[in-house]
Amino acid sequence: MRFPLVMAGLAMIACSAVPAGAQLAAGKEKFLGNIVANSVPANFGAYWNQVTPENSSKWGSVESVRGTMNWTALDTAYQYATANGFRFKAHTLVWGSQYPSWITGLTPAEQRAEIEEWMTLLAARYPQIWAVDVVNEPVKTPLPFKNALGGDGATGWDWVITSFQLARQKFPNAKLLINEYGTENDAAARNQMLAIIALLKDRGLIDGIGIQAHAFNLDAMTAAQMRTCLDAYAATGLDLYITELDIRGTGATQTEAAQSAKYQELFPVMWEHGAVKGVTLWGYIVGQTWLANTGIVNADGTERAATTWLKSYLAGSPPPPPPPPPAPPTSPPASGGGGGGGGAPSPGFLGGLALLFVVRRLVGHPARTGGNRAR
Ligand code: G3I
User: Which are the catalytic amino acids?
Assistant: First the structure.
């Protein structure tokens, strides 16, 4: 290995912790995250509780010069996330885009050694990585150097399998995800993904599915179509993550109102789906998103309608539980009780149970407020 592992000597960025409970999804079963570019926006912690680096954990960003690793921006994002107890996802190990340009000039054996070294160094420097997008866009973005990882092979996707095998070795404590765009409303592309996922699942190599959910797909989708997509992926039994959510509006109408309306139509389908364990937006500040008109907070800190709605929706979610079943029958009322309302329940055993039930509803049932933390 050409680089010493300078874990102890990392230049730590001073990160002020944000107040607990400040984020939109604080205390909820699922996380609501966002991306961090080169620096952390001052209001990040007022909204989000999970971090994905936008570009800084891509191999091409870190090692644009062979043998010289630039971790600066990634250190910033990682230190912020870990200092605040937010999940940190690395994005991404193997992708047919934003890889170092020099890689294509090497032999497959050299490429393989470089890929493994990239994974080794990333894992060693950031031991608290919660999840990693092992392969990004296997269907949509071909990998020019896939032969270094076994090529198509007998399965048709050997290079993806090898990538996950390597990732399992290097990141034994992280969730291994596959991540793709454009399958949200495209059954044929989704079926290709499901075939790859089956190969990985059969080998115990995958922990979750990342659905990018970008505006160029979602703007034209209905709630029913989104549910169809999520149900199809959920049938694998794996956890689902919405990994790069952005929304503009509907068709050519990318007004603030149209954006908010589309959020209101689609976000609850994702957030309330049982298999979806967390949602990450791909940017939020107007003028700082990769796709124009997807921001939901203005640069001056004022909030667009989508954020106003999102805040109130999340403040009330999960939706109110269904009404309680009818109270069990109580002992016959004491004679002369009048039979009308207002009388205290009978002190019999069943009546006591009913009273206990009502009290627990009023103070909140732990099973509804706790539950599984998003994994
Ligand atoms: O850093 C250079 C800068 O030095 C140079 O002057 C400038 C000139 O164009 O380019 C800068 O790099 C840009 C980089 O973002 C950092 O800002 C690249 O040109 C630009 O192509 C790159 O775009 C990124 C894009 O991935 C590349 O594919 C976006 O910021 C990033 O949001 C986007 O994210 C992807 C996900 O990783 C995967 N899913 C799709 C998503 C959107 O495309």
Answer: 137, 244
Which DSSP symbol is given to 151?
A: -
- CA 73 – ligand 1 centroid, Å: 14
Distance 55 CA to ligand 1 centre (A): 7
Q: Report the predicted TM-score, pTM, of the whole model to 2 decimal places.
A: 0.83
Q: Please name the residues in contact with 326: beta carbons below 8 A apart, sequence gap of 6 or more.
A: none
Widest CA span in the chain: 95
Residue 98, SS3 per DSSP: coil
Tens digits of pLDDT across the chain (375 residues): 343 333 333 333 334 456 555 899 999 999 999 999 999 999 999 999 999 999 999 999 999 999 999 999 999 999 999 999 999 999 999 999 999 999 999 999 999 999 999 999 999 999 999 999 999 999 999 999 999 999 999 999 999 999 999 999 999 999 999 999 999 999 999 999 999 999 999 999 999 999 999 999 999 999 999 999 999 999 999 999 999 999 999 867 789 999 999 999 999 999 999 999 999 999 999 999 999 999 999 999 999 999 999 999 999 965 545 556 666 655 544 333 333 333 333 333 343 344 444 434 443 333 333 333 455
Q: How far apart are CA 16 and CA 259, in angstroms?
A: 32
Please list every protein residue whose CB sits less than 6 Å from any atom of ligand 1.
54-55, 97-98, 136, 181, 212, 244, 290
